[in-house]
Specification:
One of its GO terms (cellular component) is endosome. The protein has about 150 residues and is of the alpha+beta class. It has a domain at about 10-65 and about 105-135. It is about 25% helix and about 20% strand.
């Protein structure tokens, strides 16, 4: 007998992205530019989802990243003479410390919704397994018994 392998499934970690084109929402079929992308795990998965669904606890939960320890900006009070510091350089320093790219929010899907995302991957795996099994089965008899 062949060993039963498990299908390659995407991880339940999705990032919220904005698409260039609109597509139908996975839940309500309304057109939206917002989508979820999962590029973790052995398989990637993506689907369009309305921004209203991302706030629903029955659809997904927002994952909180652990806070990153950022050293406080040096105001110049502890070192040097403190002369020559004006308000315009302080605001320039603050604007440089803020990242220009918006960080994508990370979500985990509710287990029932995640199962709906996994089901096509599982069905594809089962179809491949059954076609392999059919190839190993003997054919039907071609002659009539006497």
């Amino acid at each position: 007998m062949s060993s039963q392998k498990r299908p390659a499934l995407p991880a339940n970690r999705y990032k919220s992205r904005t698409a260039a084109k609109q597509g139908a929402c996975f839940i309500c079929a309304n057109f939206t530019c917002s989508l979820f992308v999962s590029d973790q795990g052995p398989v990637s998965d993506w689907f369009y989802v309305c921004s209203d669904h991302t706030t629903s606890p029955s659809f997904c939960s927002l994952l909180q990243d652990p806070p990153v320890d950022v050293p406080p900006p040096d105001t110049g009070t502890g070192t040097g003479t403190g002369k020559g510091v004006n308000a315009s350089t302080a605001t320039e320093d603050k604007s440089k410390s803020v990242p220009s790219e918006q960080v994508a929010k990370k979500y985990t899907l509710h287990r029932d919704v995640f199962y709906l995302r996994l089901r096509p991957f599982i069905q594809q795996f089962e179809k491949q397994q059954s076609s392999r099994l059919v190839q190993r089965l003997p054919g039907a008899p071609t002659h009539l018994p006497k």
